[in-house]
Amino acid sequence: MKQIPNILTLANLFCGCMAIIFVLYAPETLTELNGVDYSVTNPAPVYWASVFVVLAGVFDLFDGMVARMLKVSSPVGKELDSLADVVSFGVVPGMILFRILRSAYMQQPDIFDVSYVNLAPALLVPCFAAYRLAKFNLDTRQSENFIGMPTPAVGLLVASFPLIMLYDQYNVAHYLGNIWIIYAIIAVLCYLMVAEIPMISMKFKKLKAKENLPRFLVIAIVIVSIPVFKFLAVPIIFASYVILSLVMPPKIEDA
What we know:
Elements: H1 4-25, E1 28-33, E2 36-41, H2 44-70, H3 75-106, H4 116-119, H5 124-138, E3 146-147, H6 151-166, H7 179-194, E4 198-199, H8 213-229, H9 233-247
Antiparallel strand pairs: 1-2, 3-4
């Protein structure tokens, strides 16, 4: 029984590895222009990477919950959870942003190849995610709420981008084709992960409405936005979560 949470954590890691495979697998087809062959990435497999990030998020949610229910929390489980998270919600989002950024460059007129130097900023996401998780493991102030954006939230946000681009219900996909918007997203996400900003935890310790008002508001936004905005609801929920954390900051206990 005590290994069940670890099995769920490993399932999270497995999903992260599968997502990496789908990002890497995205095949490239050749197109000819003025007698020169250029490669064009087929983005379809990246959508499956998004699906596996969501599955990783489900396993990440339940491993801690099951560990608390069975009262089998352990230092090994805590470290294993962080190792899985840095893959599923750090490396994978970085690779997805790498692909999106490359596609954005390739859509520009007269550009048929792009330097990896221009794409390298996407890899800052896994670097900052790793630092954020290492910091979280040692920071005793984050037992009740978070300081800085949790990596699963970053992973799920980035995972929504390929799906938003595929099901462009509100004609916003072109914004993800703007390289400067992508660079700005990378910068903001990296900052939020390591910033000393108290963030709301969705753990309900008590049922008092006043203490849980920010959590109830987040849940209400989730319930309302998903049926209306579909995949676009994810960035809306993310932005709302950040705003609520700033406007109604949770109390952080001193170490």
